[in-house]
């Protein structure tokens, strides 16, 4: 079974430029998460989707960040414009939502963003 | 609300020695507790989880953790460290049956030959 796929793995951009990250969750997983991981810190939730609905986006900085999961499968996270402080690793995770394992999240390898 | 505190941002052990990574949690509702491991340039991988069944939980790679409600702890142990255990370890908590997971800041484990 393929794991969570993320692309690109690395991205270097100049400040004020836009950037987008893509995530394809494990097949059949209804719940998708985007996390921000700063250096030396644990992941912090940005947004959670149940199918195509964003059910928790309270920590998403909506002035510059946006996300979508139009068909309830893959998802895109966008930053526009990027700031120096956005340099971090962006992790995508998914979970099955089935009883007994809904709480286990499976993580992708992340996208490491560097804003210059 | 939930929170997690991992005691010690860095832990160093010799190969073959006991590994003990400490985690204390705070939760106003029955918690689910997790340990994840992260190797360099990779995502997080689940080591083990507690979901209100047995308090002693066994995970992958010889790790185990014990849920102690009276101490609000969920420490991770392994009897004998291996070089391949060198990684970052994250403790996490969520509300039982819930989806929002709070991660600790992580503990980096170094294993000396």
**Helicity of chain A, in percent?**
under 10%
Beta percentage of chain B is over 45%
Greatest interface by residues involved: A-B, 23 and 25 residues
Number of strands of chain B: 11
Query: What is the terminal-to-terminal distance of chain B?
Result: 41 Å
* Biggest sheet character of chain B: 6 strands, mixed
Determine the number of helices of chain A (DSSP H or I, runs of at least 4 residues): 0
Structural class based on helices, strands and sheet pairing of chain B: mainly beta
Structure description:
- The complex is a heterodimer of chains A (116) and B (113).
- In chain A, strands 2, 4, 5, 6, 9, 10 and 11 form a 7-stranded mixed sheet that branches.
- Chain A is an all-beta fold and 116 residues long.
- Helices cover 0% and strands 47% of the residues of chain A.
- Chain A has strands spanning 5-7, 10-13, 19-24, 31-37, 44-50, 53-56, 65-68, 75-79, 88-95, 106-107, 111-115.
- Chain B is built from no helices and 11 strands.
- Chain B is globular.
- Chains A and B meet through strand 5, strand 9 and strand 10 of A and strand 4, strand 5 and strand 9 of B.
Main attributes of the structure:
heterodimer, A: 116 residues, mainly beta, seven-stranded mixed β-sheet, four-stranded antiparallel β-sheet, 11 strands, B: 113 residues, six-stranded mixed β-sheet, five-stranded antiparallel β-sheet, globular
Itemize the secondary structure elements and their pairings:
The complex is a heterodimer of chains A (116) and B (113).
Chain A: E1 5-7, E2 10-13, E3 19-24, E4 31-37, E5 44-50, E6 53-56, E7 65-68, E8 75-79, E9 88-95, E10 106-107, E11 111-115
Parallel strand pairs in A: 2-11
Antiparallel strand pairs in A: 1-3, 3-8, 4-5, 4-9, 5-6, 7-8, 9-10, 9-11
Chain B: E1 2-7, E2 10-14, E3 19-27, E4 31-38, E5 44-50, E6 56-58, E7 64-68, E8 73-78, E9 87-95, E10 101-103, E11 107-112
Parallel strand pairs in B: 2-11
Antiparallel strand pairs in B: 1-3, 3-8, 4-5, 4-9, 6-7, 7-8, 9-10, 9-11
């Amino acid at each position: 079974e393929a794991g969570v796929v993320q692309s690109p793995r690395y991205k270097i951009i100049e400040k004020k430029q836009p950037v987008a990250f893509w995530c394809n969750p494990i097949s059949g997983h209804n719940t998708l998460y985007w996390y921000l991981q700063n250096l030396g810190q644990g992941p912090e939730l940005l947004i959670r989707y149940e199918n195509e609905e964003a059910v928790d986006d309270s920590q998403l900085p909506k002035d510059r960040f946006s996300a979508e999961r139009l068909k309830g499968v893959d998802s895109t996270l966008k930053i526009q414009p990027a700031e120096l402080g956005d340099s971090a690793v962006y992790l995508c995770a998914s979970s099955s939502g089935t009883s007994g394992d809904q709480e286990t999240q499976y993580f992708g390898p992340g996208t490491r963003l560097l804003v210059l | 609300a939930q929170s997690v505190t991992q005691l010690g941002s860095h832990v160093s052990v010799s190969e073959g020695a006991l590994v003990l990574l400490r985690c204390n949690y705070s939760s106003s509702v029955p918690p689910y507790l997790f340990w994840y491991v992260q190797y360099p340039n990779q995502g997080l991988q689940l080591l083990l989880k507690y979901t209100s069944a047995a308090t002693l939980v066994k995970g992958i790679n010889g790790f185990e953790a014990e849920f102690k409600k009276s101490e609000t702890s969920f420490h991770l142990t392994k009897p004998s460290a291996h070089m391949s255990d060198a990684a970052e370890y994250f403790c996490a908590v969520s509300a039982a049956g819930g989806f929002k997971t709070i991660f600790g800041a992580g503990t980096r484990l170094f294993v000396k030959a």
